[in-house]
Amino acid sequence: MTVAVSGGSELSPEYIIEEILSLYRNIRNLPDEEILYGPSDRNEELFRKLDALITLDIENDTAWEILQKKELDPVFADISRFRNLYTVKLETEHANEILASDSPWASLEQFYFYENYLKLVRTEYEGLGLSPGDRVFFLGSGPLPLTLIVFFRQHGVKSTGIEQDSGRAGLSKRVLKKLGLSEAVTIVNGNHFSLNGKDLSLKPEAGIKALMIAAQAEPKKEIFERLLEVMPVGSRVSCRIYEKGFRKLLNRDCLLDLPEGFEEHKRVQPEPPVYNTVVFLEKKR
Questions:
Q1: Strand ranges (DSSP E) for the chain?
Q2: What's the whole-number mean pLDDT along residues 109-136?
Q3: Neighbour-count burial for 190-226, b at 16+ CB within 10 Å, e otherwise
Q4: Considering 99, 106, 187, 219, which has the largest number of Cβ atoms within 10 A of its Cβ?
Q5: Is 186 exposed, middle or buried (0-12, 13-18, 19+ CB in 10 A)?
Q6: Coil, strand or helix: which one is 265?
Q7: Cα angle: 93, vertex 30, 36; to 5 degrees
Q8: Which stretch of 48-57, 132-141, 274-283 has the lowest confidence by average pLDDT?
Q9: What is the structure's pLDDT at 206?
Q10: How far apart are CA 114 and CA 97, in angstroms?
Q11: What's the helix, strand, coil split of the chain in %, to 5?
């Protein structure tokens, strides 16, 4: 499959759908284990083609027209599955490279998405009104907790990452130890149900200023229902979503409606190299 942009808006929905189906035919029969642990060359090529596809310069209305086609739902679900798993593969491989390196910080900076994270974290730092010494929670920290590493290294913000996969949580702890960040960044093996009112207290002694939700943390509706139960009024939340143009393919139903009990304060659209829109919310009741 070759994704070529010719004048951006000149791309027809029919052409884009054929590109999607071409990618899907190469992905649909790949088992999860093969994506996570199989040979890299072919899957890397598919991953790069998918990145080219989701960053096509097309109008939001055209993207939405395609994404509303119910017959393509299984196709979108499988493509999203592939990207999520391959991202975990990339993070896992790079985490292991850091562990094996004599220069772990230099190795960290070579990560495929490193520059994306520098800009994305600055957006969240400013949007949440954070200061050095603050602490945040991050739901969905993964095997390489780059968000949390950058938050401390660039802005002095401490954090607790929550990761539901025990193997990935353990790997991220070893990476943090290698980087000398085990005191500034802690990792908990759990999910949104692991959170309670004490964790998210806004009292000064608790020191928790905000909770952030990763783009891949799912299901979003269930997560927000849990937060509505345990978060005190006034709590701040940031949520990464894929919203601009064809990036919606990666989470088409995320935050189409504002979660009940939360008020949106700001929505920051991505600028290259960032893919994520960041939505800033506050619990109102």
A1: 135-139, 158-163, 185-189, 208-213, 236-241, 262-268, 277-283
A2: 94
A3: ebbeebeeebbbeeeeeebbbbbbbbbbbebeebbeb
A4: 187
A5: middle
A6: strand
A7: 15
A8: 48-57
A9: 59
A10: 14
A11: 50, 15, 35
